[in-house]
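thread from #wetlab-drylab

HS: before we spend reagent money on co-crystallization trials with zinc ion, can we at least see a predicted complex? here's what I'd submit
DV: go for it
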Amino acid sequence: MRRVLAVSVFSILLLIGCGGGGGGNKQPDYHGRCDYSVLNPYSRPPVDLVWYHNAQFNLDRTIRWPHRDVLIAVMDTRIDRWALQQILDEINRYIYPTRLVVADVPPVYADIEIWHNPVLDQLDWLGQCEWIFGAGNFLVKAIIEIADSPFYGCLFYAVLKHELLHAVGIFEHMTDGGVMNSPTYNDVITPNVIDVLVPLYRFPAGTPVYP
Ligand SMILES: [Zn+2]
């Protein structure tokens, strides 16, 4: 599911809602644990990955955070800070010199907000991410919401990682069984994820990319 809303603030800002990070399948066989048996690293769309996962949503131009610290306000009190930091350390390897940083700032001052949203669970979503981008082909805000379903452990953090990867510029889901699969079964950052993030953050925002 995807929706696009236009908002006018100096230039065009777009708000895109991304579908449920964990997807709707609530079968108990993978709740509470990660299922690595679904990994299929050879599955990738037959088009340019940066275009497919990112540029197609911005008139074939790449869109990402600037090369600076991106501040995260953690409003979901269920999130263990050490576990979150492990996720950020892993993602930061691929978006250098941009860096995701947990910050003790009010959400309005943060670049990325993470909230607990019990209502999402009633929509059969484990998580969602919305993001706004604007002038200069840069992201300016991302809002992550994590559901209240009875999932925990690996899958909870897999969904959190899934939404954080949406927040740094992977806007479309993957079919490789890794963390960007939907539904999400595990927390594996697959080669497809790396092949989007590394070029996305290496080249200037707004770089033309075609299928
Ligand atoms: Zn998603």
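DV: Confidence is low (pLDDT under 50) at residues 1-31.
HS: ok that's useful, forwarding to the group
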